[in-house]
Amino acid sequence: MKRLAVLAATCALAFPLHAKQIASVNGQAITDEQLNQFVTLLVEQGAQDSPELREQVKQEMIHRLVAVQAAQKAGIDKRPAVQQELELARQGILVRALIADHLEKNPISDDKIQAEYDKIKGTQADRKEYKVRHILVEDQKQAEDLLAQIKAKKISFEDAATQHSIDPGSGKNGGDLGWGPASNYVPEFAEAVETLKKGEMGAQPVQSQFGWHIIQVDDERPVEFPALADVKPQLEEMMRQRQVMEFQKKLMDDAKIQ
Q1: Buried b (16+ CB within 10 A) or exposed e, 207-242
Q2: What is the rounded distance in angstroms from the CA atom of residue 39 to the CA atom of residue 60?
Q3: Mean pLDDT, range 189-216, rounded to an integer
Q4: Does the pLDDT at position 15 exceed 90?
Q5: Which of 30, 55, 109, 202 is a plausible cystine mate for 23, CB 3.0–4.6 Å?
Q6: Which residues contact 135 (CB under 8 A, 6 or more apart)?
Q7: Are 205 and 143 in contact (CB under 8 A)?
Q8: Architecture of domain 125-222
Q9: pTM of the full predicted structure?
Q10: Phi then psi for 222, rounded to 5 degrees?
């Protein structure tokens, strides 16, 4: 009933002279046409039209009209704060209706969605993701000593990570961080990853806010871009929001504001 009460506030009570009357409250009629309009609003929001729904709507309209008449009789509708709230509600309804009308008249076609998808995909063509290992230690000397031992093949990268890395997540897995774009990491780490080739280990330890890292890139591959079908709803919503912003900007640009 809460949704009915909210929607009832938007239903005007004026009606044609020859409209069929379904109820009367203190001589003020509620018509079949008003009931149909109210039911249509609910159906558009997912409700199922039925005799039970129509009876529920009818009772809600009666209860609300009783309360509206009482408020008017008490002069509440004349209070400045109430009039201001009513005006704000009226403006809000008009703005939403204006935007809905604009979107209906300017639908986002499948061709436009495809073009936007291709455009975004094109900007991502050079993006890569990396399979990275690292060893994290607290100080530079320890990092340099470990790096020298790995280069001299006195210890494997994996064993060094398992024995010495203070990263609890990757350390127990031989330093393996899995696949991900360089942007997953802090800037210093990301920059080092992007400069390394597949199978290459950094020549020097890299310092970050977490400590000193020995970094190795095991593999790299292009970032797999999602299929259009998987992102179409989000893409369409993004384009719709952008369309609304552009429409609102045009309204402001065309308005004479002093």
Answers
A1: ebeebbbbbbbbebeeeeeeeeeebeeebeeeeeee
A2: 12
A3: 96
A4: no
A5: 30
A6: 143, 146, 157, 160, 161, 164, 165, 167, 171, 175, 213, 214
A7: yes
A8: Roll (3.10)
A9: 0.60
A10: -65, 145
